[in-house]
Amino acid sequence: MAIGTLTHKALELGIDSAESLAKHAPDLPKEHVQTAFNLAQSFQTDSAYQQYRSDEVVWEQSVSLTVDGLTLNGKVDLVSDDFVLDFKTDQTIHPEHHQFQLWAYSKATGKSSAHLAYLRRNHLHSFETNDLAQIEKQAESLI
């Protein structure tokens, strides 16, 4: 979990070296800091994420969504004009574990697509308009 948090910090702040990143986690072992830095760098350099890198994005945007009296709060890692994106440092790819989170983010921001960037695998999973509509039906049923 500490690696994931530190990876997010590196991305949000645009940290460009493991040494600089280590200042944000002085108690974390150097190898964990290096892993977090490498994961952040994968977003900055891998072609899988090229179209999602831009100066026209908002980092760490707080959102709130109320559905049938239930209020959901969260923080979107990256928000653009037409999408939301959440970084994952999971070892395995399981978008179904995050589908409600991404639906809520897209609904709260009014975006038509939502993406998961699995940084350990250089894999992008997308939820497009039709996917989000199906997830919304499930979410409403659960709520």
Notes on the structure:
The protein is an alpha+beta fold and 143 residues long. It has helices at residues 2-13, 18-22, 30-45, 99-109, 129-142, and strands spanning 58-67, 70-79, 83-88, 113-118, 123-127. The chain has a five-stranded mixed beta sheet with strand order 1-2-3-4-5, sandwiched between helices. A hairpin with a 2-residue loop joins β1 and β2 (70-79). α1 crosses α3 (30-45). The model has no long low-confidence stretch (mean pLDDT 96).
- What characteristic shape results from the CA principal axes? elongated
Major sheet strand order: 1-2-3-4-5
- Helical/strand content category: alpha+beta
Indicate the proportion of strand residues: 25-35%
Total helices: the number is: 5
- Helical fraction equals 40-55%
Order of helices and strands: HHHEEEHEEH
